[in-house]
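re: that chain from earlier
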Amino acid sequence: MATTVRLAPLQIDYLNFIRAGAAQIVLIGHASGYYLAGLERDGHLETLGVLVFFLLSGFLITSSVLQKLHRPDYGFGHYLIDRFCRIFSGYVPALLFVAAVDATLMALPAYPYADSASALTWAGNLLMLQEYPVFQILHRLGMAQQPWFIEAFGSGRPFWTVAIEWWIYLGFGYLVFRIVRRRRFGLREAAILAALGIVPLYNAMGGVGHCLSFVWALGAGAALVRHRLAAATGNPWLWAGAALVSLLALGGHILAAGFQVYELQFAIFTGGVLFSLFFLFGTLTGTLPAWLSRVIDRLAGYSYSLYLTHFTVLIWFTLRLPSAGHHDPAIFAALFVTANAIALGFWFLFERHYPLLARQAKAALDRRRLPQPARA
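^ sequence. v structure.
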C-alpha cells in the first residue's frame, strides 16, 4: 500500500532554511580564511555545510523515491532523468563558468590551480571522475601524480562532492529500482551494482570526506522513519527530547574528540539534532509569515548554484583584491554579496529549469516505450 505523508508548512520552511544556511556557511567558511582571519581557521564551517548537504540529500532523495515507488510508470529511467537534470542543469554551466573565469586568472603568478585546469581535467569532471577511488588508491600506493589523475577542475574545488553525490544516486537508484523492486539479484545485477558502487563504498570508509556515503545513508534512514510513521505526527515532547539528547551528545563528543566534522559519530549526533527538529515541526500547526517563507524558499532555491560557483568567485577576489593581513571586512562583504548575486543569476538562467527539462525528457522516454502502430 502506498503511503503519502504531506509535509507540514513548518517542515518545508525548516528544510529550506537548513539547505540555504548550509550553502551560506560554506561560503562564509571558505571566505573567512582570506578576509576574516581569526573567525574560523580550521575549515569547520565549510565542512559542516557539506555534512548537512549530504544529510539532507539522503533524506530528500529517499523520501522522493518512497513517495513514487508504488507507481508502475515511475522506474529507474524516470529516476535517472530526475537526478541527471537536477545535478547537471547547474553543474555543466558551472564547469563552463569556472573555465571562463580561470582563463582570466591563469596568467597571474599567484593562480594556484594551473595543474588542474587542463582540458583533460575538465572532461573528467564532466564525466564525474574527479577524485575517483582508483586515482586515490594509486596515489596512496606511491604512484607519482599523473595527468589522468582527475581532480576537481581549476577553482571549482567543491566539485569533488558533486561526483560523490552522483555515484550515490546511481548506485541507490539501481539498487532500489532494478534489484529491490524487481526482486532479482543475479550475476549481472551484482556486477552493475559493484561498478556503480565503487565511489559510494570508497567514500564510506575513506575518500576526501571520509564517511560521506554513511552520512547520506543517515539521511536516507531518517526518510525511512518518516515513511513508516505515515500520518502519525507523534508527541512533540518526544521529538523535543530527542533533539535535546542529540544536542547534548554532540556537545559532549566535541568536548571529548574536538570539532571533527568528517567523523561518523559527529554526523550521527548532528543528524539526530536536525531530524528530531524536523519531526518536532511536523507536530506543530503554526506557520511563518508568507513573506518570510518566500524569502527562505528563494535562498534555498539557489543554494546549489551558490555551492558550485562561490569558490571561483572567491579565488577571483583573492587574486584581484588580495588582503595582506587576511582581514578586510569590506572586501568580505563585497565578496559575499557578489557570490550570492552570481548564484542567483545562475539559478535564474540554468538551475530553475531542471523540472521542465526532466518533464520533457521523461515524456520523450514514455513516447519511446509506447507500442508502435502496426504497419499496413
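The radius of gyration is 22 Å.
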